[in-house]
Amino acid sequence: MIEQLFKQISPEEIADKFNIFTLIGKDLFAITVGNHHHYNSMVGSGGGFGLLFKKATLWCNLRSDRYTIELIEKKQVYTLSYFPDEYKPQMLFLGSKSGRDSNKMKEVELTTIETPSGNVSFKEARLIIECKLVQITIPELKDFYSLEARRWLEDTYKSPNDYRKYVFGEITHVWIRNNI
Ligand SMILES: Cc1cc2nc3c(=O)[nH]c(=O)nc-3n(C[C@H](O)[C@H](O)[C@H](O)COP(=O)(O)O)c2cc1C
């Protein structure tokens, strides 16, 4: 039961308890989609917290060929999970190969936990954010003005599937590990 290990806080309380620029800029997170029969995680970094349509929202940048984004498009719900530093090897492992053609979810040394909404995360997490997909945007060069951004984007369109999709999710539930 998730309630034995975690307590729920509101999305607004995330910023009271964590530095959001650390969460999104320095820390790694596992993005997990699916149910306990079939799920997949990848590691991500970057993105942001904010308000979209007056709702607390989290966005991240996912390369278009990630298996995780394919599943997010299908299921439209997912979790972002943050872990204590000692789980960095597991994070890097989730970022080392695709779940499309590997058994990485069976191999990774983490223990799944299901939220009351049926989303999957891990017992070892320190923070779990459940999201409902709102929007996936494919960035277009014509919409970018700074030279730096244009150059970055041009590079991502040079080879097929290297471009990123911007994935916006409404934050529906937030769980923090007891005694944090
Ligand atoms: C430290 C680290 C950060 C990463 N951040 C991102 C990211 O923000 N967006 C992305 O698309 N891929 C990112 N990746 C790469 C994916 O995690 C990796 O390609 C993963 O194997 C994709 O898995 P999937 O195909 O099962 O979804 C990162 C990898 C590492 C090691």
- What radius of gyration results from the CA coordinates? 16 Å
CA distance, first residue to last residue: 18 Å
Helix content estimate: 10-25%
General shape = globular
Give the oligomer, counting copies of the same chain as homo and different chains as hetero.
single chain
Q: Report low-confidence residues grouped into runs of 5 or more.
A: none
Number of domains: 1
Q: Architecture, CATH level 2?
A: Roll
> Going by CATH, what is the homologous superfamily?
Electron Transport, Fmn-binding Protein, Chain A
Overall description:
By secondary structure, the protein is of the alpha+beta class. It has one domain (2-177): Pnp Oxidase, Chain A (Roll), CATH 2.30.110.10. It is 24% helix and 37% strand. It has helices spanning 2-5, 14-17, 20-25, 67-75, 88-94, 104-107, 147-156, and strands at residues 6-9, 29-34, 39-44, 48-52, 55-63, 77-82, 112-114, 120-122, 127-137, 164-177. Strands 1, 2, 3, 4, 5, 6, 9 and 10 form an eight-stranded antiparallel sheet that branches. The chain has a two-stranded antiparallel sheet with strand order 7-8. The longest helix has 10 residues, at 147-156. It is globular. It starts with a helix and ends with a strand. The structure holds flavin mononucleotide (FMN). Flavin mononucleotide binds next to strand 3, strand 5 and helix 4. Flavin mononucleotide is lined by residues 28, 40, 42-46, 61-63, 66-68, 92, 95, 97-100.
List the helices and strands and how they pair.
Layout: H1 2-5, E1 6-9, H2 14-17, H3 20-25, E2 29-34, E3 39-44, E4 48-52, E5 55-63, H4 67-75, E6 77-82, H5 88-94, H6 104-107, E7 112-114, E8 120-122, E9 127-137, H7 147-156, E10 164-177
Antiparallel strand pairs: 1-10, 2-3, 2-6, 4-5, 5-10, 6-9, 7-8, 9-10
The chain binds flavin mononucleotide (FMN).
